[in-house]
Write a structure and sequence with these properties.
By secondary structure, this protein is of the alpha+beta class. The chain folds into two domains: 170 residues, Beta Barrel (OB fold (Dihydrolipoamide Acetyltransferase, E2P)); 164 residues, Helix Hairpins, CATH 1.10.287. It is built from five helices and 13 strands. The strands form two sheets. Strands 1, 2, 4, 7, 9, 10, 11, 12 and 13 form a nine-stranded antiparallel β-sheet that branches. Helix 2 runs antiparallel to helix 3. The longest helix is centred in the middle third of the chain and has 89 residues. The two termini are 87 Å apart.
Length: 409
């Protein structure tokens, strides 16, 4: 009977072992998987510290307001809306007639000023020579007049001596005539002697009158000589102003040269205004907001269109203030553009001087009791480093959304 009872076999513990081993193996795999996931997550986190990115960014560029520098009527418009132009391409043309006339007038004024300047410059050496010659001549005239005065004075003295002599002779002749008169009445002397005495008295009387006339002429000669000396002295004084006259002529020559320069400047301005009748693109870009039309009268400074420059583009990225800890100028940036789906290279150029909220039209007022701390954003400028080769077709436009990633480590 005892032999018929079932004998326990070793299969039951073996089955328990088989059940326990798979559970332990799965637990180990799970632990390994968790560790791998943790390591991968740590790797991703560690990798994320190498860069900072944001989707609050856009392409910026220069929007050039093109206007006319002179007034005029539009004759031709050479561009259309959204047309791509190069720097120097003609955008519009104004009527140049008035400005062409102004150029011709300025050219005539310049020619006149140049002729006056030539004449004034030639007059300077002539004036120098003339004033020197006049000074020498005036000195000689003064010397001559002074010698003439001495000569006329001598002549006056001689005339006075002759008057004295004539008067003495006349006195003697008149006295002889008075003595002869009773003698002739008594026939003491002949009639012929009386007649000779009368004739001698008349002759000496005439000689006195002649001598007085000569004396008066000598007096007049002295006065005339003195007048000539006065005139010569005045001429000498005028001639002595020769250096001042030369200086004045030199000043007139310089003034004439200044007038030439002024006329040249006016001609240059007239030519500039004539050139401004052709309104050209100041830079390469795309025409937008065109408001100029043919036959339109425009004024200086009047906005005609907007030119969007495509040569100088950059990115303005608004990073959170918590992302700026390791960010600095010069760091490389990878820029992803949504519109083209391409990545572009760049670098950080500037970090803004204030947050966007402070630079807004209405800055926030935080001095209140219900203040809530909000993470601020700071504008960061990013310049493209190889835009010419990365965007040969000029597909980038100001305002496009981009996602920059800055390598901070």
């Amino acid at each position: 009977m005892a032999d018929s009872s079932p004998t326990p076999t070793p299969s039951e513990p073996i089955a328990e072992t088989e059940i326990v081993q798979p559970q332990s193996k799965r637990r180990g795999i799970l632990i390994v998987v968790v560790i791998v996931l943790v390591l991968v997550a740590a790797g991703f986190w560690w990798r994320s510290t190498f860069s900072e990115d944001t989707d609050d960014a856009q392409v910026n560029g220069h929007l050039i307001q093109v206007s006319s520098r002179v007034a005029g009527q539009v004759l031709k418009v050479d561009v259309e809306e959204n047309q791509l132009v190069k720097a120097g391409d003609v955008i519009a043309e104004l009527d140049p007639s008035d400005y062409q006339v102004a150029v011709e007038n300025a050219q005539a004024a310049l020619a006149t000023a140049q002729a006056n300047a030539i004449a004034a410059n030639v007059a300077v050496p002539i004036s120098t020579v003339n004033t020197g010659s006049n000074l020498r001549s005036a000195g000689a005239d003064v010397s001559g007049t002074q010698a003439g005065i001495q000569q006329t004075l001598q002549q006056l003295e001689a005339a006075k001596a002759l008057v004295t002599q004539a008067q003495a002779n006349n006195t003697k002749a008149q006295a002889d005539l008075e003595r002869y008169k009773p003698l002739v009445e008594k026939d003491v002397i002949s009639k012929q002697q009386w007649d000779a005495a009368v004739a001698q008295a008349d002759a000496t009387k005439a000689a006195v009158a002649d001598a007085l006339a000569n004396e008066q002429a000598a007096v007049s000669g002295v006065q005339a000589a003195r007048d000539r000396e006065t005139a010569a002295q005045a001429g000498l004084k005028y001639a002595e102003t020769g250096p001042q006259q030369v200086a004045a002529q030199s000043a007139r020559a310089k003034a004439a040269q200044a007038q030439v320069m002024q006329a040249q400047a006016q001609l240059d301005m007239a030519k500039l205004n004539l050139g401004y009748t052709k309104i050209v693109a100041p830079a390469a870009g795309i025409i937008t907001r065109k408001s100029v039309e043919v036959d339109q009268n425009v004024a200086p400074g009047q906005n005609l269109l907007t030119l969007v420059s495509l040569d100088d583009l950059w990115v303005t990225a608004n990073f959170k203030e918590t992302q700026l800890k390791s960010m600095s100028a010069g760091q490389k940036v990878e820029i992803h553009v949504d519109s083209t789906g391409k990545d572009y290279s760049g670098k950080v150029t500037q970090i803004g001087g204030a947050t966007g909220s402070v630079l807004s039209l209405f800055p926030p007022e935080n001095a209140t009791g219900n203040y809530v701390k909000v993470v601020q954003r700071v504008p960061v400028r990013i310049d493209f480093t190889n835009l010419a080769s990365e965007d040969p077709n000029k597909l980038l436009r100001p305002g496009l959304s981009v996602e920059p990633k800055v390598s901070v480590k």
